[in-house]
UniProtKB/TrEMBL annotation:
Residue stretches spanning the membrane: 12-32
Protein name: Type II secretion system protein H
Record organism: Pseudomonas rhizophila
Localization: Cell inner membrane
Source domain of life: Bacteria
Length: 150
């Protein structure tokens, strides 16, 4: 029986190749930087959609809806259909209170006033600037009620 040289790779050669592939993929993974505006942009997009939805709800229902916010989150409210008090949309699948995704959020509204979405089709333009301390994004509502991100 002739036991000539066998062809193939040794275990050490395979391990060296795997280590090289691991180092190369780690270098590529570290060089890809996350988008610093990602969370802020997501907050702005979600707010724009919900403001548009709340505006539509106010027009359909006939009762104004207020938007309130703080550093932790935001929510909508309107007067109860029957009796005193406010409906804060806690059980509403879309307009329920939400937390900001950005860790530190600053909100500036121009003109400085309470944000109220009424049943009127024409209203005052509104600019909401969202800032995470490093970057900012504007959510603007036109006089016709169209909401867009700038």
């Amino acid at each position: 029986m002739n036991l000539g040289k066998q062809r193939g790779f040794t275990l050490i050669e395979l391990m060296v190749v795997l280590v090289i592939i691991g180092i190369a993929s780690a270098a590529v993974g570290l060089s890809i930087k996350p988008d610093p505006l990602k969370l802020l942009r997501q907050d702005a997009e979600r707010l724009a959609q919900l403001l548009q939805l709340a505006q539509t709800e106010a027009r359909v229902d006939g009762r104004p809806i207020s938007w309130r916010w703080d550093a932790k989150g935001f929510g909508f409210s309107r007067r109860q259909d029957q009796g005193p008090g406010l409906d804060r949309f806690k059980d509403d699948p879309q307009l329920h209170p939400r937390r900001w995704q950005s860790p530190s959020m600053e909100v500036h509204v121009e003109p400085r006033q309470r944000v109220v979405l009424s049943a009127e089709w024409i209203g005052a333009p509104l600019n909401i600037r969202l800032s995470d301390g490093q970057s900012s994004i504007n959510v603007q509502r036109s006089a016709a009620g169209r909401v867009q991100i700038q």
